[in-house]
Write a structure and sequence with these properties.
Layout lengths: L1 H12 L7 H8 E8 L7 E3 H14 E13 L2 E12 L12 E13 L2 E9 L1 H8 L7
Parallel strand pairs: 1-6
Antiparallel strand pairs: 1-2, 3-4, 4-5, 5-6
Helix pairs in contact: 1-2, 2-3
Length: about 140
């Protein structure tokens, strides 16, 4: 089960040219999925809200998440990742800058019945805003 969970976690986290994460929410997550991310305005969201937050991010940024390492035990998979991107669309009132960014993060997945039931994210959101020169975050 741990190997299968790691495969599902990778499919969820890593965008490819053929696939983004938006359909992955429905394909890989339970109907009662919960996502916890203290960097977002609402720290805990349900499946539909998580999908919409990600849609906003992927519209504003060319995103690429890369899993750097994974550890699985019982129903949990912990992943250290790097996210890279380029600011191509408006994000929360901040017009596209064309700038690129890179940040590290960690995500813990909890599985139930082979699907992702819950995630906890911690990533350098403030560092991304600084790299982009977002208003109030310029270096």
């Amino acid at each position: 089960m741990e190997t299968r969970s790691k495969d599902v976690a990778s499919r969820f986290l890593e965008e490819t040219e053929e696939r983004d994460r938006i359909p992955a929410y429905d394909d890989l997550c339970t109907a009662d999925y919960r996502e916890h991310d203290p960097a977002m305005p609402q720290e805990t969201v349900v499946l539909a809200e998580a999908r919409e937050i990600y849609r906003e991010l992927v519209t504003a940024f060319e995103l690429r998440h890369t899993a750097e390492s994974m550890v699985a035990e019982d129903d949990l998979v912990c992943t250290r990742f790097t996210v890279r991107g380029r600011h191509i669309g408006e994000y929360q009132g901040f017009p596209p800058s064309g700038r690129t960014f890179e940040a590290s993060g960690q995500i813990t997945f909890r599985f139930r019945g082979g699907r992702i039931a819950e995630t906890w994210l911690n990533w350098d959101y403030q560092g991304v805003l600084e790299q982009l020169g977002a208003p109030g975050n310029a270096r």
